[in-house]
User: What shape does this take?
Amino acid sequence: MGFFSKRKKSVLPGFGLSMGFTTFYLSLIVFIPLSALLLKSFELSLADFWQVVTTERAIASYQLTFGASLVAALVNLVFGLLVAWVLVRYSFPGKKIVDALVDLPFALPTAVAGIALTALYAPNGWIGQYFHALGIKVAYSAFGVTLALIFIGLPFVVRTVQPVLEDIDKELEEAAASLGANRLQTFCRVIFPALIPSLLTGFALAFARAIGEYGSVVFISGNMPFRTEITPLLIMSRLEQYDYAGAAALGTVMLLISFLLLLLINALQHWSNQRQGGTK
Assistant: This one.
């Protein structure tokens, strides 16, 4: 076959056209806005930038934002798997309703979700009054922030794991049972390894969604500096004071930390995929 051999025609557009459109679209939607954020933060000198992003108030907001997001994503990792398992493996009355309710946080405006959660878990709320009687404060605390992030992040794990569970061949489970494996061994050695990549993806999506959440958290948190103030709210406070460079500096820190954490999660997912491929 010669160097200038005729290529087979494809139904889809060629690489050049597809890559060009992809680059243009990503530049317009992602790269240019992020570049504008970085350029705005460069209006500050290095000393001023460091002073803005390392104040006590800013560090407290980082700790709450990333800490609550991590806890919420871990909780969703466990219970999202459980919900997906029930929806895939069992039939029960009202299953379609439960399946539709999983997507409710996607459709519900986040501000409405925040108001609803605050009304439920406030000290005089329908559910919060019972926690209050036990001395547990839900609304206007870090607990309430985490609860709101769990609410908005659950669908990401469920919808990522659910199709993978549906595609797992039940003959593999039957083969494991015929070889003497009990249910726990079958789950740990046959089912769970196949779910690891999807679980990591769902965790990453839920974590990323929680980091940037604002609407559902701003009501239930109480917005108390050093205690229940999240970084997105601190950025909004800077914007209201017309401190655009300071807001951009805080946003840049959030962007860098989020990127590094997501890069780590993607590296773990890549390692898991390679490990799965190597064991087949």
